[in-house]
Structures are given as C-alpha cells and as structure tokens.
From TrEMBL:
PROSITE patterns on file: PIPLC_X_DOMAIN
Molecular function as annotated in GO: phosphoric diester hydrolase activity
Highest taxon of source: Eukaryota
Name of the protein: PI-PLC X domain-containing protein 1 isoform X1
Biological classification of the source: Eukaryota, Metazoa, Chordata, Craniata, Vertebrata
SUPFAM superfamilies: PLC-like phosphodiesterases
GO biological process terms, semicolon-separated: lipid metabolic process
Pfam families hit by this protein: PI-PLC_X
Organism: Danio rerio
InterPro entries registered for this protein in UniProt: PI-PLC_domain, PLC-like_Pdiesterase_TIM-brl, PLCXD1/2/3
Length: 323
C-alpha cells in the first residue's frame, strides 16, 4: 500500500498526498476541521477564533435576558466561566493552518451600537481580532502554500444588515480574488483546483447572498451530537452514518457539548478538561472511520483543542484507506 508520509508538521499535507488521491473529490477525502457548538445553544455556532476572545466585550444580543442579567450583576464570576467554556482553540489561525486544519467554522457578527462596519468573530462574546484582518492573514498563508485548499464556512451573521452583508462579501472577494472556487465548478479535486489556481471554497450561510454571488457556496451540513460525553457522541455519529452521508461537503463534529446547568454544577471542570477526559474513547472510534463516497463514510472531521490533541494527524491518516 502506498503510504502517506507522517510528519509532526502538517502544513503541506495536501500537496504531499499520493498521486492516486489527487483526482478524488474533496468531498470524499478526510479533512481536518475545527468545531462549532460547544456550549448548548438554541442556535448559532462557534469559530476557529475562540482563542482570542475579548473577556471585556459585551455579550451577544442573542443571549437570553436572564443570562444577560446574571452577567451584569455577577460579572466577576460569569466572565471567567464564559472564558473557560467558550474557548475551544488555544492556537492562533496560522498555527491551526500549520497543524493541518483545512475547514474553518467562522461565526461572524456586528457589535450592537457599533457605528463602524467592523465585523468580529463570536462565541457568546466577541473576539479581539477582526474578521477582515484575520482573513487577510489567511490569504497571506495561502500565498506561500499554493497547493493547500481551505474551506471557510461563514455563518450566524448576528446584527448584520443587507448592506453589511454586501460589504463583507465585497471584502471577501477582494481578499481572495482568483483563489475563490466558483460554485459551478463540478470537479472539485486537488488536481483540478491546482490547475485553476483556486484555494478557497467559501460557504456562506445566507441564502439570498448565495443567489446573488456565484463565488458563495451554500451552507455546509454539520452533524452535531449535542452530547456531554464520548459514548453518547459516538452513538449519535453511528446513527447518522446508518442514514447515509449527505451530498457534497459535510462535517462530523467530535466536539462535546454542555449546557449551563452542567457548567454551574461542575465548577472544577472546563471544556479542555472534559475534552481530554474523553479523548481516548473518541480517538479509538476515529481510527476506525473511513473517507469516501459510500454511505457510512465521513468527510470533514472537526474537533476542539487542535494542537493539544493529535486530531489532524489522525484525520489525515484516514486517507490511506482510499489507496
């Protein structure tokens, strides 16, 4: 069997794949990603930018009035808890790229009462880093890695008007330019994208915008177990596999999820300790998975705390099963 070279540094893993895998659709490869939805929420997701949350920023306007009241009265207690449970990545965006992450879930929002058009990433609170400066950094990284392909999933869009959407999309086009893969491209393989000079599949979770702009791909389905332990998460994933894989790109989220009652009753825990606690069981299950076009196969596989846990190398190594 032809081998994929293993390396601690996965920043060029796509360009180093065996020849046979260059003509397999990206939707049938195993692709490492970062996750969404770690604290139980009725809607929304979190993003790769949770490593730079601004603990002093306001709560998102979508947070409940009760939680907003508690945060106002017990600010000194709620903010450390928010930071501990909302932080799901400990390395920055370039380090995530270098680690091998190729799918990024980006929750974009406009701050309430902000008179500027500046956009931020969010997970309960806002980030220090702005969206545009971060994506410009990503583009610079792509310039020096011309054979690496990334998938950006922009979603949530809290507080964004039609005007802000159009301004953001214009900025995205201006940043990535010819690197954007058009939606009408039917053969999305590494070899084909290299020939076209495309490096970015841009998913945008706003149907009206995807109608108006041919560069925007529709929302990517995310399989989210919404469970606080490994066994329930795995049971959910196995049930989904029995139903068959979705069309196109889709994400299997290996992130654990807790609600605020769990957080309040487990003050000694954090998302990091919980993730590490169940990692061995999740790792065992992950090693048994396979990419491909068949119904039980997986595509994008996302996890928390990239860098602390060897998720990327495990996911990338699954592609050996296609040889």
């Amino acid at each position: 069997m032809e081998q994929i070279r293993e390396d601690d540094n996965q920043e060029d893993w796509m360009s180093r794949l065996p020849e046979k895998l260059l003509d397999i659709p990206l939707t049938n490869l195993a692709i490492p990603g970062e996750t969404m939805k770690t604290i139980g929420e009725s809607k929304g997701s979190h993003d790769a930018m949770s490593y730079c949350l601004d603990i002093n920023s306001p709560l998102l306007r979508s947070e409940s009035d009760t939680f907003r009241l508690l945060d106002g009265v017990f600010y000194c207690f709620t903010r450390p808890f928010i930071y501990r449970w909302a932080t799901t990545q400990v390395i920055n965006i370039v380090e995530q790229l270098q680690a091998g992450i190729r799918y990024f879930d980006l929750r974009v929002a406009h701050k309430q009462y902000d008179t500027s058009s500046e956009l931020y990433f969010t997970h309960i609170i806002y980030t220090h880093a702005t969206v545009i400066e971060t994506l410009e950094t990503v583009n610079l990284w792509l310039e020096s890695h011309p054979k690496e392909i990334i998938i950006l999933a922009c979603r949530n869009f809290e507080g964004m008007s039609d005007e802000l959407h159009e301004g953001f999309i214009y900025a995205l086009k201006n940043i990535f330019r010819s690197k954007l893969c058009p939606v009408n491209e039917t053969l999305v393989t590494l070899r084909r994208l290299w020939a076209l000079g495309c490096q970015v599949v841009l998913s945008y979770e706003d149907p009206q915008s995807t109608i108006r702009h041919k560069e925007l791909w529709p929302a990517i389905q995310y399989l989210w177990a919404n469970k606080p332990n490994a066994e329930e998460l795995i049971q959910y994933m196995e049930c989904k596999k029995q139903l068959g894989r979705p069309e196109g790109f889709f994400v299997a989220g290996l992130n654990l999820t807790t609600d605020r009652c769990f957080i309040a009753s487990n003050p000694q825990e954090s998302l990091k300790t919980l993730t590490k606690k169940y990692w061995n069981r999740v790792q065992e299950w992950l090693k048994e998975q396979k990419p491909g076009a068949e119904p039980p196969c997986l595509n994008i596989i996302a996890g928390d705390f990239i860098g602390l846990l060897p998720i990327c190398s495990l996911v990338i190594s699954l592609n050996k099963k296609l040889l």
